[in-house]
Write a structure and sequence with these properties.
Layout: H1 4-14, E1 34-35, H2 42-48, E2 61-65, E3 71-75, H3 79-85, H4 91-97, H5 102-107, H6 112-126, E4 131-132, H7 133-143, E5 149-152, E6 157-160, H8 162-171, E7 174-176, E8 184-187, H9 203-211, H10 216-223, H11 227-232, E9 238-243, E10 246-251, H12 255-259, E11 266-269, H13 281-284, H14 288-294, E12 302-306, E13 309-319, E14 322-329, H15 335-351, E15 358-361
Parallel strand pairs: 14-15
Antiparallel strand pairs: 1-3, 2-3, 4-8, 5-6, 7-8, 9-10, 11-12, 12-13, 13-14
Helix pairs in contact: 6-7, 6-8
Length: 363
């Protein structure tokens, strides 16, 4: 049995949020991928884990559309194993991952994985040099048959479905250029997909290692994979842990780390930080009103993490030369905690290469 504090502290330690210094090679979250969404995305997540992002050569990093079709940052040296790790477990899994695109493909008698391979072949042929996503999409619409395409009312044009496009890109050996908006696709050079990802990059094991203890349903939710497939690939070397009356699993090697976990650190987590991606939101944040504030439908704030607990939200405010961090605490914070949050706001300003004007606490 484990209580909330143990679970939260275990994840802080497992994700190295308590680390002051670290190297790219031993940064654990890069094994599962670091989502790069918003200005405080993947590089800020790495910075929070002690990596000096200003000293990172771009050539050591690779940005790929992978889990849930979102852009994730990885070590370039790992790309072959990453591509193997994000391969769908089955055709049904591929169908779930591409959402509504699966229905017209099925009606046309086209298997989902075969469809991804078809799109990948065309992508590989089209992207012979760095190419903006919109141009690639336009080219695809001229070479793919009707089951792959949909009419977009917003654009008043016919496009390929979004998820097959994104998930086929990595199969085509394509990456996203760093720091481009709209995205620019280019060929990745010098890698071959591994036959298997190995334990380190296996996505189910990585979830349990970084976001455990967890149930198969929670892992399936994170991957957008069918529960049946996740259960079929469930590791053997796990132990049962009861959390809040729910039986979950943890890698047996992490049992002692869970039992002894106690985190003492303050961090300003980005809106899509891995810590906030866990699918047991009631464990992360039991208060329903606070959860609604942290995970709105649109415009997510960041989260204030203090000693293993989420204690409020934060938002950056930049106007001209002024940069403030607005903090909304969920309860009265001690002076020492406010000072620690202010220190982290200074760290964020340094990361953004601006001067911090103020930290505005709502109460």
């Amino acid at each position: 049995m484990a209580d909330r504090h143990q679970v939260m502290s275990f994840r802080v330690r497992a994700q190295q949020l308590d680390r002051d210094q670290g190297r790219l090679a031993d940064t654990a979250i890069l094994d599962i991928g670091v989502q790069n969404t918003g200005p405080d995305g993947a590089r800020w997540a790495l910075s929070l884990r002690g990596v000096d992002v200003t000293a990172l050569p771009d050539k050591d990093l690779v940005l790929l559309w992978t889990v849930r079709g979102a852009p994730h940052l990885y070590r370039r040296a790992d790309i072959g194993k990453v591509v193997a790790a994000v391969e769908p477990f089955s055709d049904a899994d591929a169908g779930k991952r591409i959402y509504d695109a699966s229905k017209p493909l099925k009606a046309a008698g086209i298997d989902n994985i075969a469809a991804l391979d078809e799109v990948a072949a065309h992508l590989r042929a089209i992207v012979t040099k760095p190419t903006v996503k919109g141009d690639v999409s336009g080219r695809l619409a001229t070479v793919l048959p009707e089951p792959y395409l949909r009419f977009c009312r917003a654009c008043n044009a016919t496009h390929i479905y979004e998820m097959p496009f994104r998930l086929a890109a990595v199969r085509a050996g394509l990456e996203l250029q760093l720091d481009t908006s709209p995205p620019v696709l280019q060929r990745s050079t010098g890698f071959t997909r591994a036959a298997a990802p190995g334990d380190r990059f296996d996505l189910i094991r990585a979830y349990l290692r970084l976001l455990g203890p967890a149930t198969p349903k929670q892992v399936a939710g994170y991957l957008d994979a069918p529960l049946k497939d996740v259960k079929a690939h469930w590791p053997d070397d796990v132990i049962e842990v009861t959390v809040g009356g729910e039986v979950r699993a943890l890698l047996a090697a992490d049992e002692q780390a869970l039992e002894s976990a106690d985190a003492k650190v303050t961090r300003l987590l980005g809106p899509y930080d891995l810590f906030l991606q866990a699918k047991d939101r009631a464990t992360l944040l039991p208060d329903a009103a606070h959860a609604k504030e942290l995970w709105p439908v649109l415009g997510r704030p960041g989260a204030v993490l203090v000693d293993g607990e989420l204690v409020g939200t934060w938002r950056p405010r930049k106007s001209g030369k002024t940069f403030t961090v607005a903090v909304q605490p969920w309860h009265k914070l001690p002076v020492a905690t406010r000072k620690a949050i202010t220190a982290q706001a200074e760290r964020l300003a340094a990361y953004r290469a601006v001067s911090l004007t103020s930290v505005d606490f709502a109460n």
